[in-house]
Q: What sequence folds into this?
């Protein structure tokens, strides 16, 4: 480790020495979004090299999943990407269902879609808000959290907990929708249309914001595919890849998603994709609420799930990208192997490549636009 | 001049300054938190005192009682002296501000120059703090701050030249003044002609430079929390940190006060003007003051403080609205936009004052300056931001052109560019 971060010195013709400065950003730093550590080599204010160091939040979630019954593992998925627990749970429950060959009832699938899209809005709100905080604007994050609070309250009503909801089950969902919940959601959506517009007018046209983000951290489509980028980052680079469209699962078969794609490929494009995805999610929720079928919310499954021997890979479109769960079953109550394909982890790969040559002020602009959640990177 | 008057004058002024400096920070911290809370849909402090009024008092008590921590590697003498060097010029700069005709500590003939000199001394304290902390974040913060404050010093001074030129015209003798008192008087007798009406561009640029001088958003790079943790303040704690904090708020007050004096007519306002006019006509030298004089001074003080706090409110407003610029963009903004504009402003104002015949001079100057201001604002938004309206950015266009060129080449060339390797690899998996 020590030799890896050696200072490099250079001498100019007059014999004056300049030395690259090694700067440790993190793991305790206001804008690394958790405990990411970046080792930056600085030439003046220009970044010449960047090494991300991860693992400070490793809790061994994959190993825990292998030591819990299938139903018990769902709760631990909440902690992986702690900004979108509903999506994680859907991925894990969906993987087990695929392994066992269960199809959840239609109502459950629709409820999953509604909660997933709510969670996507919540996650994107945090992404946009914290991004603006990184860029020095204090207000948007508070607007974003105000709106997110409404969503979390509704999660509390439906699942019993604001954050680690533990709401999905193998074969369906835990509770049916409470009385009056849909009306409250409708009211929230109507309010959110206004606050979305508020965020848009506050941030999008701002000259300083444009100057800070346009052309910063440009990823071209080939690069995005080569690095395995998914989610808003790939879509901001013009890659038409969204699992809800390309490989629909659950209720996304019935309700068609319109993909939000931009050609920019820079931090601004990523921000715009997130902003407009929120509006698309609102549309999806409205459609799903209008078409919400009746019937049971969960199939009858045995308490001890024993899937047949085999392996499976199931992926959902998380707020950060493709969230895949790979399970190997040996026929017992416990998965023999559980692997999470975390989008944040994969998206982190490109960070050193992006940082090189940028100014130090751009480091946070790039890192914030990637929207990492360290809980998912380290697992 | 009698001795009694002088003593009263001195004591009143001293008390006023001490009270103002010590309470301004407290008021501003509370106001900032409450105003920002209001703008951000939250409540703000509310637990200590009615409406949380005692919150900043408690903050100060906490800071006073806090242990002063110092890391082992700090350059001790520099580290300890830095906050004082930062704070001293701020205190000194209060001396020449005319808050009202009576509450003026020293009617210096060179007030403007002294103010600029003192405000550029601050940078030494900041740089010493950054260097003495022996911390990488603090060092970067200190260096950034040095570069920033030196760059913004120039347009700040140049923007202040407008009012000085105007005094030379207004005072009929053809001799301008850089004394704050004279500049205030030039703006009120015989009728209102606040220089903001004649030099709006000057006020705008001065205010922008003031934001940069005081290291406030959107120019708060030296202490950019998201990049540099706390910039040059990283290693400071307790009362030493509070010195920087007080100095920053004192700087805000001074920037607002100077803007008030130079552009917003100082202490003039309804009531104060009339009294001043009356007093100069029926002048009673010797400084014996009556009840009417006291009332007049209170009114003048009131208008001055109202203007100052409106300007400080805009500081808070800007902070809660705008994101932060990047270091190189900040420099670019100072050298490529502000300085040319201030120079043009000086040239145009001077030419107009010389060329336009007497009764229309001020009208023409003011109108031309408003046009310049509109042009300036349009230019900034054109120069800083690209348009969000659906147009593809240049680098994407360039890439698409390259792709098209490659496609054209590969269509002509041998089909070696197809990918033969990808399929066996897939098969291996």
A:
């Amino acid at each position: 480790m020590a030799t890896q971060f050696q200072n490099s010195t250079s001498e100019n013709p007059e014999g004056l020495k300049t030395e690259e400065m090694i700067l440790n950003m993190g793991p305790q730093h206001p804008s690394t979004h958790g405990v990411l550590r970046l080792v930056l080599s600085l030439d003046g204010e220009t970044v010449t090299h960047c090494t991300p160091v991860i693992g400070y939040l490793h809790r061994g979630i994959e190993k825990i999943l292998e030591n819990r019954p299938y139903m018990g593992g769902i709760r631990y998925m909440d902690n992986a990407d702690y900004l979108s627990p509903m999506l994680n749970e859907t991925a894990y429950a969906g993987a087990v269902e695929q392994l066992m060959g269960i199809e959840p009832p239609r109502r459950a699938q629709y409820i999953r879609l509604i909660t997933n899209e709510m969670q996507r809005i919540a996650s994107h709100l945090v992404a946009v808000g914290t991004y603006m905080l990184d860029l020095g604007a204090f207000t948007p994050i508070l607007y974003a959290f105000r709106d997110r609070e409404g969503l979390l309250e509704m999660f509390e009503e439906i699942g019993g907990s604001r954050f680690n909801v533990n709401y999905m089950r193998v074969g369906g969902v835990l509770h049916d929708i409470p009385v009056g919940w849909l009306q409250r959601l409708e009211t929230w959506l109507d309010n959110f249309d206004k606050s979305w517009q508020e965020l848009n007018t506050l941030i999008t046209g701002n000259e300083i914001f444009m100057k800070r983000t346009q052309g910063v951290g440009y990823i071209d489509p080939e690069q995005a595919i080569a690095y395995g980028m998914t989610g808003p980052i790939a879509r901001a680079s013009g890659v038409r890849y969204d699992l809800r469209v390309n490989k629909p699962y659950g209720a996304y078969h019935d309700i068609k998603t319109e993909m939000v794609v931009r050609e920019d490929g820079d931090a601004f494009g990523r921000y715009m994709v997130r902003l407009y995805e929120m509006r698309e999610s609102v549309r999806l929720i409205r459609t799903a609420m209008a078409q919400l079928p009746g019937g049971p919310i969960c199939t009858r499954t045995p308490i001890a799930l024993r899937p047949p021997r085999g392996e499976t890979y199931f992926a959902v479109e998380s707020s950060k990208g493709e969230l895949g769960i790979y399970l190997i079953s040996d026929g017992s109550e416990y998965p023999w192997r559980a692997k999470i394909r975390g989008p944040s982890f994969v998206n982190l790969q490109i960070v050193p490549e992006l940082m090189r040559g940028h100014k130090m002020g751009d480091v946070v602009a790039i890192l914030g636009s990637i929207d990492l959640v360290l809980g998912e990177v380290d697992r | 001049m009698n001795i009694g008057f002088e003593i009263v004058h001195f004591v009143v002024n001293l008390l006023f300054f001490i009270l103002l400096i010590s309470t301004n920070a407290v008021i501003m911290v509370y106001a900032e938190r409450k105003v920002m809370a209001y703008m951000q849909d939250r409540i703000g402090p509310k637990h200590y005192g009615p409406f949380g009024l005692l919150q900043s008092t408690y903050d100060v008590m906490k800071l006073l009682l806090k242990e002063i921590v110092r890391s082992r590697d700090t350059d001790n003498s520099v580290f300890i002296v830095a906050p004082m060097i930062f704070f001293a010029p701020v205190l000194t700069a209060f001396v020449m501000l005319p808050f009202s005709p009576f509450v003026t500590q020293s009617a210096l003939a060179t007030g403007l120059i002294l103010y600029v000199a003192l405000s550029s001394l601050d940078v030494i304290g900041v740089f010493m703090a950054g260097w003495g902390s022996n911390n990488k974040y603090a060092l970067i913060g200190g260096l950034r701050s040095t570069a920033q404050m030196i760059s913004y010093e120039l347009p700040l001074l140049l923007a202040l030249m407008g009012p000085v030129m105007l005094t030379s015209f207004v005072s009929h003798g053809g001799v301008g003044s850089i004394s704050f008192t004279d500049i205030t008087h030039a703006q009120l007798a015989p009728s209102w002609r606040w220089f903001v009406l004649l030099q709006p561009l000057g006020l705008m640029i001065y205010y922008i430079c003031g934001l940069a001088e005081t290291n406030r958003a959107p120019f708060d790079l030296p202490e950019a929390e998201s990049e540099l943790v706390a910039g040059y303040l990283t290693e400071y704690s307790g009362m030493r940190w509070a010195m920087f904090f007080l100095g920053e708020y004192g700087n805000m007050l001074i920037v607002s006060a100077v803007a008030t004096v130079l552009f917003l007519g100082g202490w003039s306002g309804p009531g104060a003007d009339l009294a001043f006019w009356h007093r100069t006509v029926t002048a009673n030298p010797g400084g014996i003051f009556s009840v009417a004089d006291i009332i007049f001074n209170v009114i003048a003080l009131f208008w001055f403080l109202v203007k100052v706090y409106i300007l400080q409110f805009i500081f808070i407003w800007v902070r809660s609205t705008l994101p932060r610029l990047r270091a190189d963009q900040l420099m670019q903004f100072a050298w490529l936009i502000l300085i040319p504009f201030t120079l043009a402003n000086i040239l145009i104002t001077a030419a107009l004052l010389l060329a336009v015949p007497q009764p229309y001079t001020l009208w023409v100057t003011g109108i031309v300056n408003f046009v310049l201001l509109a042009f300036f604002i349009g230019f900034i938004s054109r120069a800083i931001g690209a348009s969000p309206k659906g147009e593809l950015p240049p680098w994407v266009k360039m890439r698409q052109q390259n792709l098209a060129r490659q496609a054209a080449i590969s269509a002509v060339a041998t089909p070696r560019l197809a990918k033969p390797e990808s399929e066996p690899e897939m098969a291996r998996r």
In short: Chain A has two domains: 9-53, 61-374. The interface with chain B takes residues 21, 23, 29-31, 45, 132-139, 142-143, 146, 202, 204-212, 214-215, 218, 220, 263-266, 359-365 of chain A (CB under 8 Å). The two ends of chain A are 22 Å apart (CA to CA).
